[in-house]
Amino acid sequence: MNTASSVFDLHWLLTQSGLDRNRRIKMYRHSNHERAKERYGRDTEEILEAGDLEIFQSVQSSKILGDDIVAFFMGEKGRLSRFVGIWKVDSIHNYKHVSPKANRARNLGFLRNGDVWHELSWDPQFLPFENRLIIEWPETGRHHQWLYDGQSVKQIAVHEIRSIGISRSFPGFTNVVLTFAELTSLVQNDTSGWRDALEKTRGAYLITDIESGDLYVGSATGADGIWGRWSQYANSVHGGNRVMIDKTENVERFSSRLQFSILETMGNLATRADGIAIEKLWKRKLGRKATVLNAN
Asked: How far apart are CA 154 and CA 132, in angstroms?
């Protein structure tokens, strides 16, 4: 993977990219991947890929995220840490808090008795740096610390900014699970391997609103296969779907909740009628939730 070295200061780069320099900002590093695996059955990278990172990191044992802005990082080898986004702490509650996000966190086993729930909102303006910007975590060992506490800025050099696109190879159709941001990156960068596989394949796919649990079952039977159909979503979010068009008034908010996966592949000669038939079958299998975003 191509990378670019950098001598930028982290706080300077974030403020140049739209962060209010007067806002206090904490840094938080996801580093104990195996503990997450043991406790929830998924490590933090798998939680990220499934689109559940926001609700996972909203749960803490105490009010360690502060009450302003948090830059989250994913621990890699040694002290290397990969930026995964910036969230604003909108409010702080005990474990009994009721909201769509808190309810989902509770259902997944993230939010438990005695935990502190942070209601977070994602800031989309830093999306271009997500999963690309790399720093070396300070040697203090603490997984949360101030980048700017309102008085002084911690000087942290940006180690590198990685090239755009998904670096992992195509995992096979049954293992494809993409966030909207990942799908957009694939399409914009014409990622080889992924395009080759998806363009040659027709099939049924699933779009999941990971916050509400609502589902959209679709099929791709055009000349460009699943790649062609998913490119339409990458370019418009709604892909021409009537129900999803209504939801894209707040496009950044809605798109950040979407997850794309493949239900079943079909032969390259599959027709539109074949696609409709397989859609109906999967709607029956998945139940009522599979008709919410389809509107049928």
From this structure: 21
